[in-house]
């Protein structure tokens, strides 16, 4: 692959002037810059990754890499190169055989699991799994929200801080946010085990746990609406709606209203003003936008 070839040649200080310009035009070049800003979140065995990147970034801009500095930084840069190759709309980190995929605000992605099962990850979510142990144990860890299409086979477990969702082959959605846990079955059967109880969900059945309160519900839709870029809610506190809005649009919302008002409705992920109207008009609220902050008031 040309992309990997350029990265390898860059690491080895073998890029020509023309190739260096081509390297800087790669889609992943900006991702490398972002990665450097968060380098303190991972460490090479003998190097401080944050200071290392501070040294290497000015050198990139000068279009020249010192072989002496390169030799010192090479362990860190090789880690960065691995991250860049796998980074498109999400970041994948491989630590101790654990693959972790993160989506940022306003991002969604589709993950192909080792058995051809599919996980669609909603914005600001995290999914982890062990590829090497997959044949023995189909298991993922989820923080956030994901829709699963599970290939038939052995038991498939989704582990969350709120409970465990288990299936053999089906389609379902799991939402695990702060104080909010919801599972909906769209095909087959799903077993949900929480500290409160164990439930078996069939087609169209939903279990929702909010602040320890359990609600059993039903749905007539065939898949979660967020896949079609709409967030839907049914009798949930307005704070949950606002939290999802902030994730989808990467904004900050200040509330000057009763945050415990219950909301039923949807909002689009493609039109901010239309989305704001969708969540404020039903509750007779107003809004005002100032840069990246939105004020909601009565």
Structural class: alpha+beta
Helix content: 25-40%
Shape: flat
Largest sheet: 14 strands, mixed
CATH class of the largest domain: Mainly Beta
The number of domains? 3
Question: In CATH terms, what is the architecture of the largest domain?
Answer: Sandwich
Summarize model confidence as the mean pLDDT: 80
Q: How far is the first residue's CA from the last residue's CA? A: 56 Å
Percent of residues in β-strands: 35-45%
The beta-strand count equals 19
Per the CATH scheme, the topology name of the largest domain is: Jelly Rolls
Number of helix segments? 7
CA radius of gyration: 22 Å
Which spans of ≥5 residues are poorly predicted at pLDDT below 50?
32-77, 79-95
Output the helix-strand order. HHHHHEEEEEEEEEEEEEEEHEEHEE
Molecular structure report:
- Helix content is about 30%, strand content about 35%.
- About 30% of the residues are buried.
- By secondary structure, the chain is α+β, with helices and mostly antiparallel strands.
- It has 3 domains: about 1-90, no CATH class; about 95-220, Sandwich (Jelly Rolls), CATH 2.60.120.1440; about 230-295, 3-Layer(bab) Sandwich (Phage tail protein beta-alpha-beta fold).
- The N and C termini lie far apart (about 55 Å).
- A hairpin with a 2-residue loop joins strand 18 (about 285-290) and strand 19.
Short account of what is shown:
With 298 residues, the chain is α+β, with helices and mostly antiparallel strands.
